[in-house]
Amino acid sequence: MFTEALVLAFFVIGIQLMVPIVMAALGEAVAEKSGVLNVGIEGMMLIGAFATAYMGITRRSAGLGILAAILAGCVFGALLAFLYVNRGTDQIVTGLMFNIFALGLTGTLHSLYLAGQNGETLTGIVIPGIGSIPWVGEILNKQSLMLYLAIALAFGVWYLLNKTWYGLYARAAGERPLAAESGGLNVLRLRYPAVIVASALAALGGSALVLATSGGFVPGMTAGRGFIALGVVVLAKWRPLWIMIYALGFGLTQGLQFLAAQVPALQSVPTQFWVALPYLVTVIAVVFAPGSTYPAAVGIPYRRAGS
Amino acid sequence: MLLHGGRSKMEEQMRETKPRWAPRWLLLVSAIAMILAACAGETADTTTAATTAETTTPSAETTAPSAETTAPATDTTEAAGGEEYQVALIYPGTADDLSWSNAWWDGAAQAMEANPNISVESVELLNDPAAVVQQGSAFASEGFDLILIAHGAMVEPAHTIAEQFPDVLVCQLYNPAEGEEWAPNLCFFDIAQHNANFMAGALAAMVSESGHIASLNGFAFPALTRQPEAFNLGARCVTPDITFTQQYIETWTDTGIAKSATQAEIAGGADVVLSATDSAVFGILEGAAEADGQVWVVPSYYESQSLDPDHVMTSAIHGLTFASKSIIEAGAAGEIGESAFIDFDATNDPEIDAPLYDNIASMLSADQVALYEDILAKVRSGEIAIPDETTGDPTIGAEGAGAAIDPASIGCG
């Protein structure tokens, strides 16, 4: 029934599915902590995925693909920051429009330059010592560099938000922007880098998706992962290390559908139930998560007094 | 100190800071992006058509083969001599996805190449029924002659468009039940895609070393469900007790999900995996490539060996290109009658195939190759009568139906 190979595959799959969501959610946590609700992360993931696929196909380099995703995330993040922060546009409308824009843009560019081509991928790497541990090693040996990058980023974002002056000021801008301004801080300048970093991380999530599959780009391939990341951030209460745990929970729940198909006793359960389960769990958890209160100023465009 | 501003005053001030500048130019940018996306199909036209001319076999027939298609044409479907015949082709993927939509576009490109008076505009990535109605209606209101919907799950939208525009011919992929009636300007067509899957299943049974084959399917609706069921039936035609598992992964494009599903199937023992989905096949191929042992993949719809020669066992080529070209040309020639049903299968669509690649042939014995060729010949002659979702007892329109059929009862053995 539950063979060793199946159980191992379940964890391998769950971790693989976790990685892009962790990266996108970490970025979202930074943006929201600074007071910007960046609904455009789905589109940013698509842009990152396209950039990675483009470099992987044209330059045959996964490393350049990762860098291209970060760069693309920064460029489009600056555009979003300009809209969110400088222009004070409605953040939900702008984010949703950006998602449509990204879908159209990447779909067009894909048709022009990448159609039917596969690029570089990242295969599993063996960590000395860990790789030989029974079960743990077998699961981790199947994971690529992006998993370890995601873990490092989680610690990095935790450090950024909790141990640096920028994190303190950005959180102030996300909670009480007027008070922060009164204290001599420039809220707009604090939110700008937050949106750019958030976008770069979301683009990195898209990059991870490409590098874990064929190295090619498929229009719409993020398939709602950006929106899942939005939910994960709330569940984790904007805590970077908890984001990893909740994203893993989502990945494992999603992996259940594949496990269920292999277990005769579970095959009578409709597939749709397994497919819907992770989303159902996420929605329920978001609704009932105790104490999940957004930063006070999140989503509210800020204008300096007198401007 | 920074965190202790007066809340009510702060909120008041925040309300005052609501955006004075509506995101109008963002709307403009998005609109431009959408237009670019819409143009993508046209941009792909030239490249795809050029490739097609070299890689696909020119079809011998130019009209749809079914008797119903030769019925007298209505005024609504016939293009006047020399006038441009405008076709809107709607599909779920992209014109260059090396899969379902690519095959449809290739047929349209061939039709345009062979008939200068035919012009085709494609709409890509349409999977929402409401969007199909919107797009189809827009083309119909612009005077297009034929709305060709290459998406099996859009029967209701096709009915809606046909009712709204009785002077426009609407053709929809659908296999109607006996006695079913529909509007005069609505034409249904069916391609026995599962014929190719049956062929691929027979080959999979010969190639599989574990005796366990699998299928990863997009969504469960009869026109798709018959594909994995026929794959299983074809395999059982060769090895009656073969193990077959399948999953509906509820996506056409999510390569990450497809890869995960593939890994689960491999962990369960499968060493041949049918892809009954669309661009997500790239994830299936990656899952196979990362497997510890040799795992083969059967992509559907399109000739796909070049994607990964080391892991593509065969391609279940559904004959979509031939069907696309035939329907468009029949429409332009006014040969599609009222309430027509056009039926394509392996007996009249020469492109339906599961080719035996050289590297696979070298793995098989001479007897196996002969058996495979015999099965192909019997399918093409109709000697093996593969049921579909409406014909056969039982039909194969429901999950698991293929396992309930005795292969000998349809002509195997």
Can you give a write-up of this model?
The complex is a heterodimer of chains A (307) and B (413). Chain A is mostly helical. In chain A, 70% of the residues lie in helices and 0% in strands. In chain A, helix 1 runs parallel beside helix 6, helix 1 runs antiparallel to helix 11 and helix 2 runs parallel beside helix 4. The model of chain A has no long low-confidence stretch (mean pLDDT 92). With 413 residues, chain B is α/β, with parallel strands linked by helices. Chain B is built from twelve helices and twelve strands. Chain B has a six-stranded parallel beta sheet with strand order 2-1-3-4-5-11, with helices on both faces. Chain B has a four-stranded parallel beta sheet with strand order 7-6-8-9, sandwiched between helices. In chain B, helix 3 packs across helix 10. The N and C termini of chain B lie far apart (85 Å). The N terminus of chain B is likely disordered. The chains are: A mainly alpha (307), B alpha/beta (413).
Defining key terms:
heterodimer; A: 307 residues; B: 413 residues; 4-stranded parallel β-sheet; 12 helices; 40% helix; globular; disordered N terminus
